[in-house]
Amino acid sequence: MTKNELVDALVGKELGTKTQLKKKSLDELKELYNAMEETIESVAESVEEETEEQIPEEEVIGLEKNTETAKESAELEGEPLDEVTKDAEDEEITESHSDMKEVHKEEIQLRIFTEFVYHVRNLGAKVKVENLGMGDFYVNESTAVFGKNEDRVVFGENKEIGGAATVSLISASQPLVRITELM
Predict the structure, then answer these.
(1) Residues 82-124 pLDDT 10s
(2) pLDDT score at 132
(3) How confident is the model at residue 61 (pLDDT cuts 50, 70, 90)?
(4) What's the rounded Cα separation, in Å, for the pair 22 and 16?
(5) What is the 3-state secondary structure (H, E, C) of the chain?
(6) φ and ψ of 113, to 5 deg
(7) Around Cβ 135, how many Cβ atoms within 10 Å?
(8) What end-to-end distance do the CA atoms of the chain give, in Å?
(9) Beta bridge partners of residue 127, listed in sequence order
């Protein structure tokens, strides 16, 4: 690729402005481009690996049977299933954080291929990071790394980190993230 082609390919990837990129040497631009391509490939590989690890068919059937049993028992007791489910969810929330108080909450949208470092406002607080959608992200107390499955947070999931001064997040997309501090 020519220098101009590399600059054009990198401009939309949050790696600098066109002017900044044009000031770099051809070798530096090639390194940036290769690093970006490797990151995209590693994310694609991790998604592919997770897709291959499907739930066996017999477990899916077992889940369907459990759901039917729950519906039948709820209907026999005269309560609509939605109310039973809502009560169970409320109990889980109060049990897990009954003694914890929400001291700070904010929502951010991560940028593409940019590390976001969140500085905990209340030292000693437990930080809950939730994925509200539009892509997956990786979160860690020290440095978030693409492709590290134990740090990955997919849509609808959350991860809690306790006692950290900073929390690092990184993504290849632009997910919406809710960060809550609990004490």
Answers:
(1) 444 444 444 444 445 557 889 999 999 999 888 999 999 988 8
(2) 94
(3) very low
(4) 10
(5) CCHHHHHHHHHCCCCCCHHHHHCCCHHHHHHHHHHHHHHHHHHHHHHHHHHHCCCCHHHHHHHHHHHHHHHHHHHHCCCCHHHHHHHHHHHHHHHHHCCCCEEEEEEEECCCCCCEEEECCCCCCEEEEEEEECCCEEEECCCCCCCCHHHEECCCCEEEEECCCEEEEECCCCCEEEEEEEC
(6) 50, 35
(7) 17
(8) 53
(9) 161, 181
Cα–Cα nearest to 175, from 111, 105, 116 = 111
Q: Which two tokens stand for residue 8?
A: 């054009």
Q: Which pLDDT score is estimated for 21? A: 79
Pairing of strands 102-109, 137-140: unpaired
Closest-CA residue to 113 (of 15, 22, 6): 15
Say which amino acid occupies 162.
Answer: G
For residue 76, give Cα distances in angstroms to 5, 70, 79, 81, 82: 67, 10, 8, 10, 14
- Say which residue, 50 or 165, is predicted with more confidence: 165
